[in-house]
Structures are given as C-alpha cells and as structure tokens.
Amino acid sequence: MQFEFATASRIIFGPGKLDIIGAIITGMGSRALVISGAPYEITERLQHLLDLQGITSNLTRVESEPTVETIRDAVEVARLKSITLVIGIGGGSTLDTAKTIAALMTNQSDITDYLEAIGQNKPLTNPALPLIAIPTTAGTGSEVTRNAVIGSPHDHVKVSLRSPYLLPRVTIVDPLLTITVPPELTASTGLDALTQLIEPYTCNNPNPLTDALCIQGLSNISSSFIKAYDNGTDIQAREAMSLASLFSGLALANAKLGAVHGLAGPIGGVIPAPHGAICAALLSAVMEANLNALITLSPDHPTLHRYTTIAKLLSGNPASNADAAVQWVKDICYHMKIQPLSVYGLDELQFTKIIEKALQASSMKGNPITLSEVELRNILQRSL
C-alpha cells in the first residue's frame, strides 16, 4: 500500500477561534487582501481584528463562483495595492477565489496557462502568498484542498487549478460563523460535504487515513445534518457539520472522487446552479448506478461492502444493506426540498456535451467502476 497525505500547514478548529487571528498572522504581512463572501457583520469583525494588529485590509466581495475574468480583475487590483497577505472568509467560491489570487500573485502567467482542460495545465512554480482560509459554511472543504474550481463562461465549463501551493498557510474553522447560514444553503453545502465523504470512501484508490476521516464525517452527518437544517442555532449540530465538512475536504484532497463530481463540473458550466445543489441532485442517482453496475459486473467488488458501511453509518441501523444508503440520501433530499436540475435550466439537449466532458474529467476517473454513456445519461435524466 502506498499513499500520501497533504493539507494546510495549520488547522485551528473551534467555536470563537476567529478571535485569535491577530496572534496567528503576526509576521505574515502588513497589507491584506480580504476576499469575503461572508455576512457584512462577520467581515467587519475580521477587519476590526486586523486593524488591532496594525494590518491594512483591502476588501473584495465575492458574490458568485469565480471565473477566469473575475480572477484576472482581482489579481490586477491586488498587484496595484502591493498585497502581501490574502485572507479568504466565506463559502467555497470565496475560498477558491482567495486561493487562486494568492497563487497568481507570485506566478506571473495568465490564469488559463495553469488550468486543466481549457488551458495548458502548467504547474505553478512559485509558492503562493501567505493565505488564511476561514470557511463560513459547512460543505465544500475548500479550506484544506489543493485545488480551486474556476468557471470559464466562454468554454461553458468549470475546471480546476491544482497545486500543493494552493494549500492555505492557516485554516481557521469556527462553527459559530455558520450559525446564520439559511436552511437552503445549509442543505446544499451539507450535501456537498456528504458527497465528498461518500466518493473518497468508495473511490478506486482509498487509503486508511481518508477512510477514517470519511467514517467519522458520515457519522457526524447522520447525527447532526437534519438538526442543523431544522434549527440553525443548534451549535452542537453546527460544530459537528463543520467538522464533517473539514473531514470531507481532507478526504477529497488525498483520495479520489467519482461520477458525481465528474458530472458536476460540466453541468456547472452550462447552468447557473451552485456546485452543492448540483451534487445534491446527482448523488442518489450516481450511488444507485454504481451499485447496479457493481452488482451486475463485479458482485464480489469490495466497494459493495463500503456502500453497506455507509448505509449503517447514515441510518444508524447495523442491519442496513447498501440500498439503505441510497434511500437515506433520497429521504434527506426530500426533507430539505432539494430542487431538480431542470429548475436551473438543465435539459436533455445538453446531455451529450455534458457526458463528453464528464468522461474526460479527472474526478470521473476515480469512480469505483466505469459507467457507460447510457448509464450517465440515465443519471442526468433522473436529476431533472
């Protein structure tokens, strides 16, 4: 067995930990670019904490997922202001934006040179500026991953920038920052985290470290996801979900993903749907397709036992079989009113191009079994 494990240089977890940022960033730089998608009161609190340390903060708000164009504009502003430190505070889109800007500040080529699929996929050669990642949602795990998802409207696709240099210098996970997240966003980000625990656990190259993280993360989601959705002020539930999200990021960064993420990137390039909402709509259909393909083509495949383990963890019933995992996901999507992708504009006319791109996606290569174009089309049909 061989594997490696990489993550942020330092992870700080716990309610109220945002307040210690002043002590953490000492010596990292005096001119900070704050990339924020967080509520204004949280952003103002962060800037006040920076002011107390004599650090000048320049604020850039993030209102949508990053694109090639928005990244170019932000990097230009950061260079004009001679930024020496980047702080991302918000959801996954915010953190991906911050990670990309920190990297491009020290790597001078255009962003497309470093992107996979639509660019040259050149490696970043210089370490990024010091980066602090502070998530305010429990879902993406971007605070501990070495990739950033960037949209290219021109190419109608979302692609990744990947490099160990994207790993933050420090990650602060403060569950109190998630208290005000509304139920709809709690649902989509939580299902993103669930997907990022299921796919690394069932991928074709898991490892003991990510397995342990996935098992604990799934247990947290089983006990706390509905509680956090139904009552956002339940701090114990928010803390458990923040930990599950962190574990999901650690897992996906160090194992592989699967067909949900393989399809989600191309889908996200053609419809204006958040990544978490896309994963939520696809997850049960992909799980069912994988189970059917494994049972039919490889009935002794070890991943079938892993799906059974997932079912037992999610349902809390030690007698559950693998199908119970699919049903649990369906039930929670119903409880949380997850919308079909047709609501966002997906239709069958887009299926062929989506499947073509999905088959080339790096995430798809981690799926436990190869799914045919017919199977992928059926998954998309069931997500409408």
What does this structure look like?
This protein has 13 helices and eight strands. The chain is of the alpha/beta class and 384 residues long. It folds into two domains: 169 residues, Rossmann fold, CATH 3.40.50.1970; 201 residues, Dehydroquinate synthase-like - alpha domain (Dehydroquinate synthase-like, alpha domain, Up-down Bundle). The strands form two sheets. A six-stranded parallel beta sheet has the order 1-8-5-4-2-3, sandwiched between helices. Strands 6-7 form a two-stranded antiparallel ribbon. β2, α2 and β3 form a beta-alpha-beta unit. α9 packs antiparallel against α11. The longest helix has 23 residues. The protein is globular, with a radius of gyration of 20 Å. The termini are far apart.
Write the layout of secondary structure elements.
Layout: E1 10-13, H1 21-24, E2 31-36, H2 40-52, E3 56-61, H3 68-80, E4 85-90, H4 92-104, E5 131-135, E6 147-152, E7 157-162, E8 170-173, H5 183-202, H6 208-230, H7 235-254, H8 259-268, H9 275-297, H10 302-315, H11 322-335, H12 351-360, H13 373-383
Parallel strand pairs: 1-8, 2-3, 2-4, 4-5, 5-8
Antiparallel strand pairs: 6-7
Helix pairs in contact: 3-4, 5-6, 5-7, 5-9, 6-7, 6-10, 8-9, 8-12, 9-11, 9-13, 10-11, 12-13
